[in-house]
Amino acid sequence: MKRIYFIFIGLIFVLFKQTLQFWDDSFLFYLTNVIGYCLILFGLYQINKNNEASVQARAASILMLLHSIFFFILKGLGYSPLTSDLSSFFSKILAYVGSFLLVAGIFLMYIIILQIMEAISGEKKPGHLYYLINIMIIIFLISHVSISTGLLSNLEHVFMVILLIGHIYFLISFYIIYLSSKRQYG
Protein backbone atom coordinates (compact mmCIF):
# COMPACT_ATOMS: atom_id res chain seq x y z
CA MET A 1 0.00 0.00 0.00
CA LYS A 2 1.32 3.42 -0.91
CA ARG A 3 2.23 5.48 2.12
CA ILE A 4 0.31 8.42 0.73
CA TYR A 5 -2.94 6.46 1.18
CA PHE A 6 -2.73 7.16 4.91
CA ILE A 7 -2.72 10.89 4.16
CA PHE A 8 -5.64 10.50 1.74
CA ILE A 9 -7.74 8.51 4.23
CA GLY A 10 -6.84 11.06 6.93
CA LEU A 11 -8.03 13.86 4.67
CA ILE A 12 -11.33 12.03 4.16
CA PHE A 13 -11.82 11.87 7.95
CA VAL A 14 -10.92 15.54 8.37
CA LEU A 15 -12.90 16.93 5.41
CA PHE A 16 -16.05 14.80 5.43
CA LYS A 17 -18.40 15.82 8.17
CA GLN A 18 -21.77 14.42 9.11
CA THR A 19 -23.73 17.68 9.25
CA LEU A 20 -24.13 20.86 7.29
CA GLN A 21 -23.76 22.99 10.42
CA PHE A 22 -21.12 25.71 10.20
CA TRP A 23 -20.58 25.57 13.96
CA ASP A 24 -20.30 21.82 14.35
CA ASP A 25 -18.76 20.77 17.63
CA SER A 26 -20.23 17.32 18.05
CA PHE A 27 -18.39 14.44 19.68
CA LEU A 28 -18.23 12.65 16.29
CA PHE A 29 -16.76 15.77 14.65
CA TYR A 30 -13.76 15.71 16.98
CA LEU A 31 -13.43 11.93 16.87
CA THR A 32 -13.13 12.01 13.07
CA ASN A 33 -10.59 14.84 13.35
CA VAL A 34 -8.47 12.90 15.85
CA ILE A 35 -8.49 9.81 13.61
CA GLY A 36 -7.83 11.92 10.50
CA TYR A 37 -4.87 13.82 11.92
CA CYS A 38 -3.37 10.59 13.31
CA LEU A 39 -3.53 9.07 9.82
CA ILE A 40 -2.13 12.22 8.21
CA LEU A 41 0.76 12.27 10.66
CA PHE A 42 1.47 8.59 10.11
CA GLY A 43 1.49 9.16 6.35
CA LEU A 44 3.73 12.21 6.62
CA TYR A 45 6.23 10.31 8.77
CA GLN A 46 6.12 7.37 6.35
CA ILE A 47 6.92 9.63 3.42
CA ASN A 48 9.88 10.88 5.46
CA LYS A 49 10.68 13.84 3.25
CA ASN A 50 12.70 16.38 5.12
CA ASN A 51 11.79 19.39 3.04
CA GLU A 52 10.46 22.48 4.77
CA ALA A 53 6.83 21.85 3.75
CA SER A 54 6.90 18.32 5.16
CA VAL A 55 8.31 19.51 8.49
CA GLN A 56 5.73 22.32 8.65
CA ALA A 57 2.88 19.95 7.73
CA ARG A 58 3.92 17.53 10.48
CA ALA A 59 4.20 20.32 13.07
CA ALA A 60 0.83 21.81 12.09
CA SER A 61 -0.78 18.35 12.06
CA ILE A 62 0.52 17.67 15.57
CA LEU A 63 -0.94 21.01 16.66
CA MET A 64 -4.29 20.14 15.09
CA LEU A 65 -4.23 16.66 16.63
CA LEU A 66 -3.74 18.24 20.07
CA HIS A 67 -6.43 20.83 19.24
CA SER A 68 -8.86 18.05 18.28
CA ILE A 69 -8.03 15.94 21.34
CA PHE A 70 -8.56 18.98 23.58
CA PHE A 71 -12.01 19.74 22.14
CA PHE A 72 -12.84 16.01 22.02
CA ILE A 73 -12.19 15.77 25.78
CA LEU A 74 -14.11 18.99 26.46
CA LYS A 75 -17.09 17.68 24.49
CA GLY A 76 -16.83 14.34 26.31
CA LEU A 77 -17.02 16.25 29.60
CA GLY A 78 -20.11 18.07 28.36
CA TYR A 79 -18.54 21.46 27.69
CA SER A 80 -18.70 23.36 24.42
CA PRO A 81 -17.62 26.94 23.74
CA LEU A 82 -20.58 27.24 21.39
CA THR A 83 -23.25 26.26 23.89
CA SER A 84 -21.75 27.48 27.15
CA ASP A 85 -23.61 29.65 29.63
CA LEU A 86 -22.65 33.27 29.06
CA SER A 87 -23.81 34.54 32.43
CA SER A 88 -20.40 35.25 33.93
CA PHE A 89 -17.41 37.17 32.64
CA PHE A 90 -15.19 34.09 32.89
CA SER A 91 -17.61 31.92 30.89
CA LYS A 92 -17.84 34.62 28.20
CA ILE A 93 -14.03 34.72 27.90
CA LEU A 94 -13.90 30.92 27.65
CA ALA A 95 -16.64 30.91 25.01
CA TYR A 96 -14.92 33.59 22.91
CA VAL A 97 -11.50 31.95 23.19
CA GLY A 98 -13.00 28.54 22.41
CA SER A 99 -14.85 29.90 19.37
CA PHE A 100 -11.67 31.58 18.15
CA LEU A 101 -9.77 28.28 18.52
CA LEU A 102 -12.48 26.45 16.56
CA VAL A 103 -12.21 28.91 13.67
CA ALA A 104 -8.41 28.91 13.82
CA GLY A 105 -8.47 25.12 13.67
CA ILE A 106 -10.58 25.07 10.52
CA PHE A 107 -8.36 27.68 8.90
CA LEU A 108 -5.23 25.73 9.87
CA MET A 109 -6.73 22.59 8.33
CA TYR A 110 -6.61 24.26 4.90
CA ILE A 111 -3.05 25.45 5.49
CA ILE A 112 -2.04 21.88 6.39
CA ILE A 113 -3.56 20.63 3.15
CA LEU A 114 -1.51 23.16 1.17
CA GLN A 115 1.63 22.06 3.03
CA ILE A 116 0.86 18.38 2.43
CA MET A 117 0.52 18.96 -1.31
CA GLU A 118 3.81 20.85 -1.37
CA ALA A 119 5.53 18.17 0.73
CA ILE A 120 4.32 15.37 -1.52
CA SER A 121 4.92 17.00 -4.88
CA GLY A 122 7.87 19.21 -4.02
CA GLU A 123 6.18 22.06 -5.88
CA LYS A 124 5.22 25.37 -4.27
CA LYS A 125 1.93 25.64 -6.18
CA PRO A 126 0.84 22.17 -7.31
CA GLY A 127 -1.73 23.12 -9.95
CA HIS A 128 -5.45 23.63 -9.67
CA LEU A 129 -5.72 22.06 -6.22
CA TYR A 130 -3.73 24.97 -4.81
CA TYR A 131 -6.29 27.40 -6.22
CA LEU A 132 -9.21 25.25 -5.05
CA ILE A 133 -7.94 25.27 -1.46
CA ASN A 134 -7.47 29.04 -1.61
CA ILE A 135 -11.03 29.44 -2.91
CA MET A 136 -12.31 27.24 -0.07
CA ILE A 137 -10.38 29.39 2.44
CA ILE A 138 -12.04 32.50 1.02
CA ILE A 139 -15.51 30.86 1.12
CA PHE A 140 -14.86 29.74 4.69
CA LEU A 141 -13.79 33.23 5.76
CA ILE A 142 -16.76 34.90 4.04
CA SER A 143 -19.18 32.40 5.56
CA HIS A 144 -17.65 32.77 9.02
CA VAL A 145 -17.83 36.57 8.96
CA SER A 146 -21.35 36.63 7.53
CA ILE A 147 -22.71 34.00 9.91
CA SER A 148 -20.94 35.46 12.96
CA THR A 149 -22.24 38.95 12.24
CA GLY A 150 -25.69 37.72 11.31
CA LEU A 151 -25.57 39.27 7.83
CA LEU A 152 -26.16 36.05 5.92
CA SER A 153 -26.85 33.56 8.70
CA ASN A 154 -29.81 32.15 6.76
CA LEU A 155 -27.32 31.02 4.08
CA GLU A 156 -25.33 28.82 6.47
CA HIS A 157 -26.38 25.60 4.73
CA VAL A 158 -25.63 27.06 1.30
CA PHE A 159 -22.07 27.90 2.39
CA MET A 160 -21.65 24.44 3.88
CA VAL A 161 -22.91 22.73 0.71
CA ILE A 162 -20.47 24.78 -1.38
CA LEU A 163 -17.62 23.79 0.95
CA LEU A 164 -18.74 20.15 0.91
CA ILE A 165 -18.76 20.13 -2.90
CA GLY A 166 -15.30 21.73 -2.83
CA HIS A 167 -14.08 19.06 -0.41
CA ILE A 168 -15.45 16.25 -2.58
CA TYR A 169 -13.89 17.74 -5.70
CA PHE A 170 -10.61 18.20 -3.85
CA LEU A 171 -10.55 14.60 -2.60
CA ILE A 172 -11.32 13.20 -6.06
CA SER A 173 -8.66 15.41 -7.65
CA PHE A 174 -6.14 14.58 -4.93
CA TYR A 175 -6.75 10.87 -5.56
CA ILE A 176 -6.36 11.24 -9.32
CA ILE A 177 -3.23 13.39 -9.10
CA TYR A 178 -1.35 11.75 -6.25
CA LEU A 179 -2.64 8.18 -5.96
CA SER A 180 -3.65 6.98 -9.39
CA SER A 181 -1.00 8.68 -11.51
CA LYS A 182 2.04 6.89 -12.85
CA ARG A 183 4.34 9.37 -11.13
CA GLN A 184 5.46 8.10 -7.74
CA TYR A 185 4.48 10.27 -4.79
CA GLY A 186 5.24 9.20 -1.25
Secondary structure blueprint with pairings:
Elements: H1 4-15, H2 27-47, H3 52-76, H4 89-121, H5 128-149, H6 156-179
Helix pairs in contact: 1-2, 1-4, 1-6, 2-3, 3-4, 4-5, 5-6
The helix content is: over 70%
Q: What is the overall number of helices? A: 6
Mean pLDDT reading: 80
Please give the alpha-carbon distance between the first and last residues: 11 Å
**Strands, count:** 0
The biggest beta sheet is recorded as: none
Approximately how much beta-strand content do the residues carry? under 5%
Multimerization status: single chain
Structural class: mainly alpha
Task: Assign an overall shape.
Answer: globular
Q: Low-confidence stretches at least 5 residues in length (pLDDT < 50)?
A: none
Helix-strand pattern: HHHHHH
Radius of gyration: 17 Å
Describe the structure.
It is a single chain. The protein has 186 residues and is an all-alpha fold. Helices cover 74% and strands 0% of the residues. The chain is built from 6 helices and no strands. The longest helix has 33 residues, at 89-121. The model has no long low-confidence stretch (mean pLDDT 80).
Which key terms come to mind for this protein?
186 residues, mainly alpha, 6 helices
